[in-house]
Amino acid sequence: MSYDKGFWDKYANENESKFNEEFAKFVRDLVVSLRCTSVLEIGCGTGIDLRLFPETFDVHGVDLNDTALNIAKEKLPKFDFKKSSITDLPFENSSIDFVFTHQLLNYLEDDILEKGISEMYRVTGKYIMNCEKYDESEKQINSNSKFRNMQKRWLGYKVKIISNVDMHEEIEPDKSRFTLLRKL
Q1: Where are the domains positioned within the chain?
Q2: What average pLDDT score do residues 92-115 get?
Q3: Local structure of 1: helix, strand or coil
């Protein structure tokens, strides 16, 4: 599953049509309810999951795809979007209150996933949320992706697992597994 620019450019251009207002509201409301003021989405694409955050928030998004980042910067000019990998996040230790992924980790090789988990843990000050297609055994979905069991992946870290449930289909039609952690 190496980086395929053609696949991700096509994904970026289709991303706008995949805007899910219910999921974007869910993320915003969760971040607000947890009293966080800064948020980072890793693999933010065109920024659709960040779109409903008020400009009073310190909002960041990272992605490897220039096409997606250009769309995000154009649509959400007050937010901070950077080209970066999950394995090398351009943020200080514990500098972001709420770090999340939404169906990104399903596309990563196991070694990149492990480095990415370590980086998410490093940059978050409070909470981490992963919404990923779930299977206990992490079997292959197709040639580009695998199911993930994020609760199992976080067991070696100093975190409290707050939630690990399938999302309601009205919020996330793919019924991704919602895993929310508090950094200890």
Answers
A1: 5-183
A2: 96
A3: coil
